[in-house]
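Exercise: predict the fold of this chain.
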Amino acid sequence: STNTRTIMSKTEKAINRTLKRLKIAFSNKEFYEVQELLSSVTNRLLGIGDDQAFTRAVELTQANMNNFIEAGQEKIASQVVALFLKACKAASKDVNYVIDTLIDTSLTFVDMEARLQFLKHGLLYFKNNPRANVLHFHAANAYWSQGNAEKTLEQLAFCEGVSNEDREDEVLSFCVKAISKSEQIDRALCVQCLRFAAKGSLDYAQALFDKIQSEEVGGENGDFVALTKYVLLTLTREAKPLLDELKEVYSNIIDDTISSLWEIIDHGYYGKSNASQSGLGSLFGSLFGGSS
């Protein structure tokens, strides 16, 4: 109708005016103004509600995300990615396209903290989607570059089944490298194996344990090694009483982290009724929770 065309014409004019202001603000290095204008124009495009507008929103946010990075404004870029993902969702963009874009863009960051914040948005966007495990792998790399072995291992716990056998070996080797840099190597091994087991990846847990043993890493605390070995053996059979006995025998080395993982394992493998899986996200380590 005529009214619809008039409204669309006014909307398009408003979008074009905002884009001109955005361009001027960028040339004047008024970056926070650019961010506000970008948010405004993106929401206007998404409000139009057609595929062409959705595609424009994706292209616009992606281009400006890269522009911010090139201008050295990585912190802003790590926030603008939320607009990009919002546009991708509206446009029903292919998962592989979105993941590839996130990975390629994240690799251009120099500031690792900004890179981690950038990846956080992707991980939230793909929450519980195993195809996004590769994002955890890149988050692990960012934490590793900061010298944070514990956070590296937390992220690697999400990387089981990432794409192919070559990557599987890469994940396990990365785990070994991070464990070897931990303050308590044998405890770190125990916790990482339990993380994999708690996520239902018993094969991964066993493969990591065998790899550590074959490379003779650690060995300063045989109790942690023995506990890990016996837990993995117990989980391959219906032997809940043995699992309970292990918890009692090794109670002197079972700290809060191991105890929390134990509850999830008990629930997952034996259906213990008082264990809750609601805390899985925090248990395996929030990507940005606590200190980094």
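Check your answer against the key: The longest helix spans residues 2-27.
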